[in-house]
């Protein structure tokens, strides 16, 4: 069974995602853009320092570039997200990359003909405009990824995205150093490179954005198309909708608060790392470099290894605790003035923050509708940048205001340690708040899930009984197998409930008549919603009460049929169908899904000469349905049993019975 919280399994990891041609193109553009961003950051800050002579001037010029790069997020971040929801996302990304190409290209050109003051002003203005354009590119890219990879591979895609974003930084640093050496060598023979040693890096940087634009221009991105005039709202209205959605949705609100808390924990170390290394650890630049490297190494480890380590744990449940972990490590770092332990703590802060970041991005992509996704990512990116700006700007000032003083009992109090301690405690509080708002298994203690994961056991059941769903295409023999299983289980002394979808309830019977009526005309979305309505009543009236009393429930079709028929067959977005079914069933999933696989040609021949509305669909439709079932089974092999249904009923029954023998042990007989 596939839900939004389904973890990465075989075929969902980063390697599987890179096998998707459309995502590979977008990822190439992302790598180029991320590399260009870091190279541009290094080149513009270096150029700012070269355009002034005094130490104070260099500090203010470099700081000015940083401020002008962060300022657009305060002004335009949510606006850019709303823009991404209203306009074609491919066009947005192509135009943004072309504008960044032209802006970076203008910096060395203007610098070669203008005086130093004018060149510095142009550099600051260009930095502001480049970052403004980037704000439009980022939500368009983030909102496009779920449409390219689907919900099952979204976590792997987010891992790759974050690796490209942060992993390109050291590569850019090496390339910048090499380009600086090349410029110095060229400067011995060319006056241009002697007076503009950073220009070569800026030209290379501009070229990366040009290549990124060309790559995205050849990409077809589903979703995010320009709205018609009747659908189009103003940018202000779109922005209001995004803010209202974020403030009124507990999950989105919890994700936002949590991601800001995780970023603040990491940002505090970046902002105070130099002061902490010097005043607390009594170290110098080497100690600072060690802490700085540890935080990014931790983020990389969390992003790359976190999803695999989490396994099948609910992503909603682990998001808050990962922030608690980051805050706890920061508290430990503040209390223990030892370089080795501080480095380990910094590594843990980064790792937990990396896990929180990739899980948060995945949940945002899964839970938010495509029409709202751009606004949400724009708002999140904007607030995260503001968060980082506030943390890096205020924490050194607060630490300096506290200073170093003697406290009670002669204990030395250092402002840096105090700020890190308070920041860690706040992160712990934020993590606990996010956990309370997002926990989707409130009846089961988190420690139970963690212990189960460490022992590599399956998920704890939320009911006493056993839930088995039989799935398959038309004519697969589900009814025959249900009858055989019912007889076998009853002979073993079990309370057995045999049911079906649609039509197991009084209301469901009426829905079934409409769904299967050959004369009825239903749109794919209406059909999906009718199946979900039948399923909601089915679970509430039949399935859940039987499971709670300890019965074995055998159902002919369940959620996987909707994912295969409406998702693959009708070609609806499967993540939307999954969300609808998850809401209808309140997350109730089978303990085992038995997929009776049969060639549609054979199955339709078995179905008879009086087909209902679904059976009467084209052979191509039924082939898509079969492929959809098999894809679901391949993604969760531990929870599926795939049986070739072209054998005799006795052979199929024997295969199913062998699997169920361990899942449904013989009931215990209580003797008087």
UniProtKB/TrEMBL annotation:
Recorded GO CC terms: plasma membrane
Q: Does the record carry Acyltransferase as a key word?
A: no
Under Enzyme Commission nomenclature, its number is 2.7.4.9
Its topology with respect to the membrane?
Multi-pass membrane protein
The entry's localization annotation reads:
Cell membrane
Q: What InterPro entries does this protein map onto?
A: MFS_trans_sf (IPR036259), P-loop_NTPase (IPR027417), Thymidylate_kin-like_dom (IPR039430), Thymidylate_kin_CS (IPR018095), Thymidylate_kinase (IPR018094), TM_effector (IPR010290)
Q: What CDD domains does its record include?
A: MFS_MefA_like (cd06173), TMPK (cd01672)
* Annotated residues for binding of ATP: 472-479
Q: Where is the Thymidylate kinase-like domain?
A: 470-655
Q: What class of enzyme is it?
A: transferase
Q: What is this protein called?
A: Thymidylate kinase
This enzyme catalyses:
dTMP + ATP = dTDP + ADP
Biological-process GO terms, alphabetical: dTDP biosynthetic process; dTTP biosynthetic process
What's this chain's function?
Answer: Phosphorylation of dTMP to form dTDP in both de novo and salvage pathways of dTTP synthesis.
| Stretches that traverse the bilayer | 26-48, 60-82, 94-114, 120-139, 160-182, 202-221, 255-276, 288-311, 318-336, 342-366, 386-404, 416-435
* HAMAP family with a match to the protein in the record: Thymidylate_kinase
Q: Which terms are listed as keywords in the entry?
A: ATP-binding, Cell membrane, Kinase, Membrane, Nucleotide biosynthesis, Nucleotide-binding, Transferase, Transmembrane, Transmembrane helix, Transport
């Amino acid at each position: 069974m596939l839900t939004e919280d389904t973890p990465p399994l075989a075929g969902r990891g980063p390697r599987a995602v890179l096998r998707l041609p459309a995502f590979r193109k977008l990822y190439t553009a992302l790598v180029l853009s991320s590399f260009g961003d870091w190279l541009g950051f290094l080149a513009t800050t270096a150029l700012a320092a070269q355009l002034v002579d005094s130490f104070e001037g260099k500090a203010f010029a470099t700081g000015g570039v940083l401020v002008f790069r962060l300022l657009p997020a305060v002004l335009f971040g949510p606006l850019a997200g709303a823009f991404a929801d209203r306009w074609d996302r491919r066009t947005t990304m192509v135009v943004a990359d072309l504008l960044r190409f032209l802006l970076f290209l203008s910096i060395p050109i203007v610098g070669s003909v203008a005086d130093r003051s004018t060149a510095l002003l142009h550099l600051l203005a260009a930095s502001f405009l480049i970052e403004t354009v980037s704000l439009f590119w980022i939500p368009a890219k983030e909102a496009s990824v779920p449409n390219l990879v689907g919900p099952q591979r979204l976590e792997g895609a987010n891992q790759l995205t974050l690796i490209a974003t942060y992993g390109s930084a050291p590569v850019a640093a090496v390339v910048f150093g090499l380009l600086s050496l090349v410029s110095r060598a060229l400067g011995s023979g060319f006056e241009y490179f002697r007076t503009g040693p950073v220009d070569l890096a800026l030209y290379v940087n501009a070229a990366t954005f040009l290549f990124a634009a060309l790559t995205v221009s050849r990409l077809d991105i589903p979703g995010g198309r320009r709205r018609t005039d009747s659908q189009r709202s103003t940018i202000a209205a779109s922005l209001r909708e995004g803010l209202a959605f974020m403030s009124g949705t507990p999950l989105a609100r919890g994700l936002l608060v949590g991601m800001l808390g995780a970023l603040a924990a990491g940002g505090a170390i970046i902002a105070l790392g130099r002061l902490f290394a010097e005043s607390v650890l009594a170290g110098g630049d080497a100690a600072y470099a060690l802490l700085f490297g540890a935080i990014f190494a931790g983020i990389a480890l969390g992003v790359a290894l976190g999803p695999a380590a989490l396994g099948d744990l609910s992503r909603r449940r682990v998001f808050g605790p990962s922030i608690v972990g980051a805050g706890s490590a920061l508290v430990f770092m503040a209390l223990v003035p030892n370089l080795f332990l501080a480095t380990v703590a910094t590594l843990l802060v980064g790792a937990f923050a990396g896990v929180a970041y990739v899980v948060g991005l995945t949940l945002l992509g899964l839970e938010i509708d495509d029409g709202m996704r751009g606004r949400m990512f724009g708002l999140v990116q904007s607030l995260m940048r503001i968060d980082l700006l506030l943390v890096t700007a205020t924490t050194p000032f607060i630490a300096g205001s506290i200073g170093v003083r003697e406290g009670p009992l002669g204990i030395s109090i250092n402002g840096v340690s105090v700020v890190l301690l308070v920041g860690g405690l706040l992160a712990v509080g934020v993590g606990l708040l996010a956990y309370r708002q997002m926990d989707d298994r409130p009846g089961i203690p988190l420690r139970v899930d963690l212990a189960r994961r460490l022992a590599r056991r399956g998920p704890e059941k939320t009911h006493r009984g056993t839930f088995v769903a039989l799935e398959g295409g038309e004519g697969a023999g589900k009814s025959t197998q249900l009858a055989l299983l019912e007889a076998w289980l009853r002979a073993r002394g079990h309370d057995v409930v045999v049911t079906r979808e649609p039509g197991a309830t009084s209301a469901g019977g009426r829905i079934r008549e409409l769904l299967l009526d050959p004369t009825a005309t239903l749109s794919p979305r209406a059909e999906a919603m009718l199946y979900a309505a039948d399923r909601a009543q089915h679970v509430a009236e039949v399935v859940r009460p039987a499971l709670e009393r300890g019965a074995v429930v055998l159902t002919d079709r369940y959620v996987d049929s909707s994912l295969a028929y409406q998702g693959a067959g009708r070609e609806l977005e499967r993540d939307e169908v999954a969300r609808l079914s998850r809401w209808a069933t309140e997350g109730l999933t089978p303990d085992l899904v038995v997929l009776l696989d049969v060639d549609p040609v054979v199955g339709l021949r078995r179905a008879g000469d009086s087909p209902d509305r679904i059976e009467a669909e084209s052979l191509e439709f039924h082939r898509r349905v079969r492929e959809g079932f098999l894809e679901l089974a391949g993604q969760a092999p531990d929870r599926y049993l795939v049986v070739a249904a072209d054998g005799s009923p006795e052979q199929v029954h024997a295969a199913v019975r062998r699997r169920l023998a361990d899942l449904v042990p013989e009931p215990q007989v209580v003797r008087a």
